[in-house]
Every structure is written in structure tokens, then in C-alpha cells.
Write a structure and sequence with these properties.
Elements: E1 13-19, H1 25-33, E2 38-41, H2 42-50, H3 53-63, H4 76-83, H5 87-114, E3 119-123, H6 131-134, E4 142-147, H7 150-161, H8 167-172, H9 178-183, E5 187-190, H10 195-210
Parallel strand pairs: 1-3, 1-4, 2-3, 4-5
Helix pairs in contact: 1-10, 2-5
Length: 217
């Protein structure tokens, strides 16, 4: 008579992704997660938080009606113009948004682990900069940097986001240097071409992650 032992779910592979503005982090995150994985996108969560009634009231009081859109909710483009020219205003806005975003990320990550989601990708733009607050780097089994040339990233931001040329460099000057982020990430994905090339790069990284010796996981 044979008996079978209960199967133990494979732990989730948690990947933290970083890179320059408009490097294609979100596209790389989706490719890494695949159809069975989960992308936890801080920007999407921040959108939800910012559109809530409490944050809307804060924004109206602090920055005026010019920071709101036609729908009466915070206008992200208008807010960006306001806060990126004034560090104190930026700090104030982030102080409202970041705690709620961190709490939601923690909840989603814990749920994914309980459900043994195969791959969880943390698409958190300031993964390294805000780590003293959210401590997400330690939650990652792997850190991946998405690399793209500065001229290509600037052109993407102009084309896809309607930014002025040079805006990428201006905003990145307020963040941790890209060279440091890349040096802190053992895996690098090049994204200077199209989505097909990006898929090839992400598959290469996933293969490397899956074949790592067990003591490196």
C-alpha cells in the first residue's frame, strides 16, 4: 500500500526591479511575472491612493485648485510640475502617499506568498531610495536592473508621457545615481530595442535565476 506525502508549495520568487526613468521597468516586470505571476506596481497603487477623498482634500488645501483636474481629483501632471520644483512640497506630498502605498504593497506581497504565486515582481520606482522606510530590498530573492541608454529613455518620455526634452535627467538628479542602482543589482536586462528583444532578455534572466545553486537563493 503506497501513500503520498502532501505537496509543499514552492516558495514565491520575489524580484525587485529598478532602472532609470522610462527604461521600461513596467514592461520588464510584466514579462518577468508572466501569465502566472504577479506584478505589484507602486505607481498603480499610488494612483488609487491619490484619487481617494482624503488625499484629494489634502492636495486641494495644500496646493490649490490648480493641482486638480476637471474631475475634481488630483492631476498628476500638474502636481509633478508643482512638487518637482520645490523639495519641501514634494516631501509633503510623499509623506501623505508613501505610507498608504507601503501598507498596500506589504498586504499584496503577503497574500501572494500565502497563495504560493510563482513569481512576484516588485515594480517600485524608488526601491533603493525609500528602502529605509519600506525595507523591501530584503524581501527580494533577486534584484534586476533595467538598463536603457539615456537618449532612448528621454525620447520615450517625450513620446509616451508628453515630457519636455531633458525632463528625465532633471528628475533623476533627485534620485540615487543609476550607477549605484545597477551595481546593487546582480541581474541586468537591456531594453534599448523592442518588446521582442525585451522578452528574450527577461527569459535569459529567469533562466539564470531558476538555475542558481540552492545556497544562492
Amino acid at each position: 500500500m503506497s501513500s503520498s506525502l502532501p505537496q509543499v508549495p514552492t516558495p514565491s520568487l520575489v524580484i525587485g526591479i529598478s532602472g532609470g526613468i522610462a527604461s521600461g521597468k513596467s514592461a520588464a516586470a510584466r514579462a518577468l511575472a508572466g501569465s502566472s505571476g504577479l506584478v505589484i506596481a507602486a505607481d498603480a497603487i499610488a494612483h488609487e491612493v491619490l484619487a481617494g477623498p482624503e488625499l484629494t482634500a489634502h492636495v486641494r488645501e495644500a496646493f490649490g485648485a490648480g493641482a486638480l483636474g476637471a474631475d475634481g481629483k488630483p492631476d498628476r501632471a500638474a502636481l509633478a510640475r508643482i512638487v518637482f520644483s520645490d523639495p519641501l512640497k514634494r516631501e509633503r506630498l510623499e509623506g501623505w502617499i508613501h505610507p498608504a502605498v507601503r501598507a498596500r504593497i506589504s498586504t499584496l506581497l503577503n497574500e501572494a506568498r500565502r497563495e504560493a504565486t510563482p513569481v512576484v515582481v516588485l515594480d517600485v520606482p524608488l526601491l533603493f531610495e525609500n528602502d529605509p522606510d519600506h525595507h523591501l530590498v530584503a524581501e527580494c530573492d533577486a534584484l534586476v536592473f533595467v538598463d536603457a541608454d539615456a537618449k532612448i529613455r528621454d525620447a520615450r518620455a517625450v513620446r509616451d508621457r508628453g515630457w519636455q526634452p531633458g525632463e528625465v535627467a532633471r528628475r533623476e538628479a533627485l534620485q540615487r545615481p543609476l550607477a549605484e542602482k545597477r551595481a546593487a543589482s546582480p541581474f541586468v536586462i537591456s531594453n534599448n530595442s523592442d518588446l521582442d528583444a525585451l522578452q528574450v532578455e527577461t527569459h535569459r534572466v529567469l533562466d539564470a535565476l531558476r538555475t542558481r545553486p540552492s545556497h544562492e537563493r
